[in-house]
Specification:
Layout: H1 6-15, H2 20-26, H3 31-41, H4 52-65
Helix pairs in contact: 2-3
């Protein structure tokens, strides 16, 4: 699955039976924070997270959906 936009990330989570909110709570993150970082750092934005929490969230999302979201080879 090609992930380019924030709504693609949400769709990939839904395909696995999780909402963004349920994924966030299950992984110990605040749901609003996860939604914000997905919007800010989706691959189509071209931005990379600099803060540790943002990197952690995007890396964990990469592992969950099986798609590299941070642009590196070993994101998940």
């Amino acid at each position: 699955m090609q992930i380019e936009k924030a709504n693609h990330i949400h769709a990939a989570l839904l395909a696995q039976g999780m909402s963004c909110r349920s994924w966030a709570i299950e992984n110990g993150y605040k749901p609003r924070t996860v939604q914000k970082y997905i919007q800010w750092f989706a691959p189509d934005t071209g931005r990379r997270p600099k803060r540790k929490l943002a990197n952690s969230i995007m890396s964990d999302l990469s592992k969950t959906i099986g798609v590299q979201l941070l642009g590196g080879e070993n994101d998940y």
